């Protein structure tokens, strides 16, 4: 009987295998002929079974065919997240099984194109660029001109979405060089070019190009609308918009595009100060995206999905609202959708780019809360406003920090370990990709790296879903009391800045109170801040006009309200925007006419300044390493024009003060750093560094080669302290909220909590002197922030240093980001008292025995 059963099972298995390919195609075609929710549910169930049994390449190809049609349906019905996941799985299956060798199935048209567009729709611009470039490469390889042109069109649309209009014009110009462009493609490229010219305020060129259109159509009127809108001619813009609207009846616009059209209409009505009409258009857009939504207010969160058109709707709805409570509710829905979108982003580049809109929204929320506070004096509103400020502070660093903390808590969890390694590998390949794009290497290398990054992105998404289910993410809810208790313990005050588009907000939290200051960012105030920062561009600027420096330093001191907390010993600064580049220690607390720097009332003399990228980092508990050994790198660059002569003195001074392992000259290689950095408590790099430029990212030099920012991101470090004794290590491309993309940030991302780094090009000799003093003080106190302050004061008080060299240019470049570690107990008094006690006891014993020798009769008695 058993033999009959197994024989039947074997025969059925063969039959199933032979018919599986046909069964997959049949299931797909059945769905295609009758697309609806019920047939989708059945298809998804069948797909799950097919995945478990498909083995041959033909079966895998059939499954790719099924998934592409399923993805198309999901996209059409606004199931964007599910559509992306389906297309990603299809692409992975196609590549893994090398199905391009088996069939001429058009993976570009059926998968890569819609996937690239979906990434653009959901704000995942990094994956969008990568995907579109991948299929442009494949199209070039197969000499498929049609796909090359459509790739250029989609790439141009993407860059238009992120306002890189110069790039758009270049892409369009190159696309026009292709032979045999059909009329539809030519018309679309012209339309894209017209709208980008308008966005760049090149109105005449845009109008001229638009007028060359062979016939009046939707795109022509839409472009006229955009041109008039950019000019500020809102009535003319409305007229063109309404003409474009007449074509909607004849057009088969996708649901999302139709909703966006109504949002644009609402934005135009808002500019024309017609709020009721604007609200009607917004309601229409909402109902298109949410067919079951019939209300006139705001939809429930549970009905929303990751679609950035919702953000445009809720942001405008909030702007129109008179009631601040309703406006805040609407903005919160925008933040909610933004979070939904972010769940699908795996690269920090995508996250950084999308921070800009969140920042603008946060500023509006803070404005609303501040205005309400002015009327009610309800201080709970101030902490709420502070939280909006914090939400957009170093969010990527905070996210990475959270992942690292979770891994430390559950070190044996293979899922967490794999996620962490994938994130590091992603940054490694991103670094390689940047290098390749800067060189003249083959496009195939770039494409290969792009494919690897896409594969990593897919793995990270899969892992995230499992990890989130296992460890549900909880929103951190730090209360005002948490901050105040910590500040009380540290004898500190926390000052956080929010550098908005129109306003500079300052939140001041002490152990007993919270306050807020608002400063309108006029052109004059911006100039004052920028002018002060530029005083440190060169050593001669300050010394050539010392009185100008003291005047500006005092102006900034008053502007930033430093006099309001001048009595506090320790000041924790959370800078923002341009304030990231201000050395607060070098501000002047009193008006002075003195030209002697050592006599000037610098803030550093009376207060300790400690910086952090976010107030969350100030609250975080650091995990101190038991190992106190220092790892130092000193390339020196002998026999070059960039020799760091005094770097050798710096190295010797460290050796005298600290247990250290130092790599000098050619031993100070990048490879030695990578191999050893994770094993030491203190990392010290005395070298050259650069903040980068529009092409190159920030970088730091080793003896043999340069390390770029993304390479640092790929490292896993956990030091107590990192000291970057190099130029511009705190400077880089500035992103709102996230800060400067600097070498210092690279170390923070890699795991460093406490850092000392520079804000401008530093002087070799003065740096060596300050570093010697820093380590002498650090060895005594084991507190970096105290050693930082003391080293600067000692530098100013050093009589062997000339007044010219005591300019703040020479000593205030280094800023400390990190924790307030108290100085280790000074047991000197204890040892003195203990020594005196021992001496006294010995003296008493000596006197006693001396008296004993003089009275021998005591023995006989």
From TrEMBL:
This is CHAT domain-containing protein. The lineage of its organism: Bacteria, Pseudomonadati, Bacteroidota, Flavobacteriia, Flavobacteriales. Gene3D superfamilies: Tetratricopeptide repeat domain (1.25.40.10). Keywords: Membrane, Transmembrane, Transmembrane helix. The keyword Transmembrane helix applies. Pfam families: CHAT. Residues 569-818 form the CHAT domain. The chain crosses the membrane at residues 829-849. InterPro entries: CHAT_dom (IPR024983), TPR-like_helical_dom_sf (IPR011990), TPR_rpt (IPR019734). It comes from the Bacteria.
